[in-house]
Write a structure and sequence with these properties.
This protein is mainly α. It contains 28 helices and four strands. Among the domains are: 122 residues, no CATH class; 95 residues, no CATH class. It has a four-stranded antiparallel beta sheet. Helix 9 packs antiparallel against helix 10. It is flat and about 95 Å long.
């Protein structure tokens, strides 16, 4: 069957890329079902229903497929399925070189054969035919005309870059349309067209030594893509920015001194709001991490002083703290690099003492130099200054614990452990283990009860019960919890000991969920939960019994009955 028609072209492209990267795992094929896991930034489960070889339904756990859309993970699984249908991975109807020319390529090998067939066709054609056809193509496609013109001309000039940027604008306007917005479903295609310019035109400029032209064009794309009104839930903008960042770092190893200075000037003048904030981080990173040569140090120091000053003027307290901290730490790294005096570094820290990142740097320096009393004094001061920021206070408290241990102050060390386990890192298993090591087995049995009694209600006491193998108490936590999350978390630990109690909890929760389920996705989730019950002793029978009850109770929900039949 021609299943590719079920997918948008850009979804097919991404699915094929996943297939080529061997992202499809645990493929299971039966007469009526294809099931697999697809790994990427996360792992998603794909199920595809078949009827006599025809696809009747597709399901994936990724967000894109929530509303019934066909996603790249489904496409990746179908490419893997198609490759396994025949020994060479080619479609069953693919015979010989002529078919290679027009066949849809399912595998890398098929793409190679298709490319070879196209090359053979071009080589066999009369030169005048090729020229005439090429001219007609270039008349119809402005982007290809600009690309061909620059290839023939060789050396790029300013107006050539203008033609490329106009092409970028034309692509953007075409996707924005009247609403001036690019939907989630078109964002992938839009970004793919911009990636094509990067991989083809920018890369060719770099190969030809046209470094500043390549830099100008990729910067235009970088600035534009962040300011386009677009639903980029799939994260394509970040991937495009990552590629441009890689080009930037590659260029810095190729350009001469004057070109490098020009690049530095562009970076340091484009943290002015012209680039959207989340993409500014790429520019900040390259300024901080690159340009390490001595001739840039004074320029960077002056620039960072300006950025600290600007950051101190921000209205938001969070933004002020974050950006001052970021640039202050980068500034301190430069001071270290140029071997500034200890007094100069301390004076800078004192001028920005209200910033937690600066104090954190100072504490680390004290610890490296074994000035533990000074570090403790700064930590106590920081706990007061940052008392509203619980995460920071917890980190300060843990550092105090480390220092007491280094000093050999066991009494203060144990006291700090108690403070951590009951307050700043309540119920933390690592802290719990560390505290347990300070007592004999007999002492600890009494002490651990003190921990359980004094722990705040939000602390994850179930983890501590698991740690101590107090499975009866752990079961109590599971049975008292809402939903099935806690049960699934501790299923492997408890299922051999308390199968009946777990199944009873399972039954109550899935029946509650079924009473609220109204769409096929929820029905699929319920069936998946019933499958999960099978890992418990007696679970297969319990799942079948629940399914039988539901078939009667929800007989007026055909979609639910359809999913139950798949159990």
């Amino acid at each position: 069957m021609n299943w590719e028609k079920l997918f948008a072209p850009h979804i097919l492209d991404r699915g094929y890329a996943y297939y080529c990267e061997d992202a499809v795992e645990n493929l299971e094929i039966s007469s009526d079902m294809i099931r697999a896991d697809v790994t990427g930034t996360q792992e998603y489960e794909v199920e595809i229903s078949l009827d006599h070889g025809e696809i009747t339904d597709m399901y994936c756990t990724c967000p894109y497929a929530e509303d019934g859309s066909h996603c790249k993970h489904m496409a990746a699984v179908l490419y893997e399925w198609s490759a396994q249908k025949t020994s060479d991975g080619r479609p069953e109807n693919d015979y010989g070189a002529e078919q290679d020319l027009f066949a849809t390529a399912y595998t890398v090998e098929a793409y190679r054969k298709k490319a070879a067939a196209i090359q053979k066709l071009v080589e066999s054609a009369d030169v005048s035919v090729v020229q005439k056809y090429l001219a007609s193509i270039l008349e119809e496609d402005e982007k290809l005309l600009v690309r061909f013109h620059s290839m023939v001309k060789g050396r790029l000039e300013k107006e050539d870059i203008g033609r490329y940027t106009r092409q970028v604008d034309a692509i953007t306007d075409r996707y924005l349309g009247r609403n001036r917005f690019i939907s989630y479903y078109e964002a992938g295609s839009f970004l793919s067209e911009l990636e094509d310019i990067l991989y083809t035109d920018v890369q060719r400029m770099i190969d030809d030594g046209e470094y500043l032209s390549a830099f100008e064009l990729m910067n235009y794309i970088f600035a534009l893509v962040g300011n386009v009104d677009m639903d980029d839930s799939d994260g394509g903008t970040g991937m495009l920015a990552d590629q441009i960042y890689q080009y930037w770092t590659d260029l810095l190893t190729e350009v001469d001194a004057d070109e490098k200075q020009e690049m530095f000037h562009w970076f340091t003048t484009h943290l002015d709001g012209s680039i959207i904030d989340y993409l500014e981080e790429y520019i900040e990173r390259i300024i901080i991490e690159e340009f390490t040569e001595e001739e840039y140090r004074q320029q960077k120091i002056k620039f960072m002083q300006e950025m600290i000053g600007q950051s101190e003027q921000k209205d938001s307290e969070w933004s002020r703290s974050y950006y001052v901290g970021k640039w202050a730490l980068a500034y301190l790294d430069l001071l270290e690099m140029q071997k500034s005096s200890k007094q100069e570094i301390e004076d800078f820290c004192r001028r920005h003492w209200d910033n937690s990142s600066v104090r954190g740097y100072y504490i680390d320096q004290c610890m490296q130099e074994r000035e533990y009393d000074r570090a403790l004094k700064t930590l106590d001061e920081s706990i007061v200054l940052d008392k509203e920021r619980s995460g920071l206070v917890a980190d300060y408290s843990e550092k105090k614990k480390e220092i007491y241990l280094l000093q050999g102050n066991k009494e203060a060390y144990i006291r700090q452990l108690w403070e951590l386990i009951l307050d700043h890192k309540a119920g933390n298993v690592e802290i719990y283990r560390e505290l347990r090591e300070q007592y004999s087995e007999e002492e600890w049995r009494e002490r651990r009860e003190e921990v359980y009694k004094k722990l705040p209600s939000y602390a994850p006491v179930a983890e501590l019960y698991k740690e101590e193998k107090l499975y009866d108490r752990l079961l109590g936590c599971v049975l008292q919890s809402t939903g099935l999350g806690t049960l699934h978390q501790y299923l492997d630990v408890l299922k051999e000991i308390y199968p009946e109690q777990l199944l009873q909890k399972y039954r109550a929760e899935v029946n509650e969920l079924a009473s609220w389920a109204k769409d096929r996705r929820k029905y699929q989730e319920l069936v998946s939960l019933l499958r999960g019950m099978r890992t418990i002793q007696g679970g297969a029978e319990a799942a079948e019994a629940i399914a039988a009850e539901w078939k009667v109770q929800y007989r007026n929900r055909p979609a639910f009955l359809d999913e139950l039949r798949k159990l």
